[in-house]
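User: Hi! I'm a student and our assignment asks us to look at how structure tokens line up with a sequence. Could you show me two examples?

Assistant: Happy to help. In each example below, the sequence comes first and the structure tokens follow. Example one:
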Amino acid sequence: MARYAFFLGCQIPMRLPNIEIAARKVFERVGLEAVDLLGYSCCPEPVVSRLLDEMAALTISARNLTFAEELDLDMMTLCNGCYETLVEANEILKHDAEKRSKVNEILKRYGREYKGKVEVKHVVEVLYEDVGLDKIKSCVVKPQKMKVALHYGCHLYREYKSPDIMRKPNMMKEIAMQTGVEIVDYGLERLCC
């Protein structure tokens, strides 16, 4: 059974609790253990926060990552914005010793240290790579014979390390197809929500 530190972010628990409830039911069905993180904060927002104060944004992200490090678990998130923020901050801090040192100076005041020992995955990656399409399909009780238009969200297209911007959207499409739906392309899938 795959285990992940579960980062919910700020929007899902407060504005979209139905997403959390549905995700937890799916995790239970497919045998994925989501260990709740306690004490985390907003990720922060992936675009503007870094433009306004990069060190503050990196420090907040690093603080959140330290909670997963304490559990010795990689982090999983449902939110595309949280995913982008946390994966980019993690990569920057793992590879930029100067920024990592500055961030850790700040975190030290709060009894924390970023070590760079966890990875961040979007739930789509976890379901596709760790659970697998066969397992997902075997858990479907009543296949859904309907047409569905997926909205991937713009942040899911961003790949920090890979030039393949279609990797996670294609994973999402394949996961959805395991439920019996027919995916309808409509040309606006990449727009911001």
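Example two works the same way, sequence first and then tokens:
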Amino acid sequence: MITLDILYEDSMLIAVNKSAGILVVPDRWDPEIPTLQDLLREYLRRTSDRDHPNLRVVHRLDKDTSGVIVFAKDVKAQAYVSKQFENGEVSKTYHAIVKGVIRENDGVINHPILESDEKAGKMMTSSKGKRSITRFTVLERFNGFSLVEANPLTGRTHQVRVHLASHGHPLALDPLYGRSEPVYLSQIKKEYKPKDGAEKPLIPRIPLHSLRLTLKEPVEEKTLVIEAPVPKDFARMLKMLRKYCG
């Protein structure tokens, strides 16, 4: 059972710490799969003095990405916040564990992005694509991996994943844009052997976390800084990298 982690709520907005593995909105091929939007609507039915059938998405996270995501409780709030996203006025901060050691301490990736012809839902960099810019800072370096803070200045699908891969450093696990095999403790800890012969990956999904969003709320136009701590699987991988790949 998925438990909602409410980070912020007022009369117009609600922000949650999304767990990895849950869809934000219904799947086009299987609309019966439970979504975060469904869970929030049920939560609001139980806790609010009014129904919220028009709970709206203002931005999205991939199914396996964790962290901060914001929903609007009505059309007016959705329009207000969506405009901030469209105008690049929302500050978005992600943490990612990538393959390889990034040499520069920081940089800007400025590669247009469009949908690939190879596979539906896959994106790629191309001069024919839409303007896409991501700033990044290396927070930590390990033997074979790096912890990166990424700030997408535009909002393209899979932007952080595509840009880091185009820079030569895909996420440590990302079947769509890079490494398809998970990272195991036995790969980084010498002579380690799992007791029962079966070994679980350090993290079973893409190591990407939406850490922080900064935006204005629509009632008094105050600036909100909403932050979500990294989840246990992400923290565990970092702990092992610091211990055995430092």
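Here is something you could point out in your write-up. The chain has one domain: 6-244.
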